[in-house]
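Weekly structure sync, notes
Attendees: PL (lead), two postdocs, one rotation student
Agenda item 3: pending single-chain targets
PL asked that the sequence for the first pending target be pasted directly into the notes so everyone works from the same version. It is reproduced below exactly as submitted, 247 residues in total.
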Amino acid sequence: MTTGTTQDRAKQAAGRRAAAELCHDGMTLGLGSGTTAHFFVRALAERVADGLDVVGVPTSQATGDLARSLGVRLTDLEAVSELDLTIDGADELDAQGDMIKGGGACLLWEKIISRASRRTVIVSDASKLVTTLGQFPLPIEVLPFGWTSTARLVTDLLRDAGYDICAPVRRPGSCGPLVTDSGNYLLDVRLGAIQDAATLAAELNQIPGVVENGLFINMADAVVVGHADGTTTIREPGDISGQDTNA
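Predicted structure, written out during the meeting:
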């Protein structure tokens, strides 16, 4: 059995539990992006086919396409004032519930939709749980106009903050630079270990040309962790990297 197959089993278990236990009739749901969140969307679609009455707001065009293809009814933030719940994934998640997101290039929509929700629950396999954020490259979404100048300012800020880094790398796409659903570029930077994520997130967003960054601070209300044997646990911020308490 390959590692990938084992990880997919864990992701699917987390997505299925979130769909089974957290989604109820009448809810407006934020539908996350990435592989684990898409397992959730597929499980949600099964419940919709069985009669569950919900409406979703997708965090990316890809998630919207998937949900529509599976029969999940969609709306947008212009039509609803507040979402009941967002279910999304993470690239890294620490014990306090702070995250790095954006590996799938959807961080801006994901952050907007999470902030518009009463609750955000993360679905994850155990490999995403870390003691300190920063091993996963931090994505920073920037305007295409003047992006090289923005990248220099990002580099200066990070070096002044004590990070020994290489210059941010503009993420490539299939033909030229990757362009996000909002028409922007992504810069990826390897920090190694982030000591004060909240301060860094705020400072990055003060740079002209930075649209948003992939640090999600105080946004996870709980995490559903899937395991390779198909079991799951639900953990609260403050104990996300701790012992399993709910098999």
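Discussion points:
- Residues 242-247 have pLDDT under 50 and may be disordered.
- The domain at 138-213 is CATH 3.30.70.260 (Alpha-Beta Plaits).
Action: rotation student to compare against the earlier draft before next sync.
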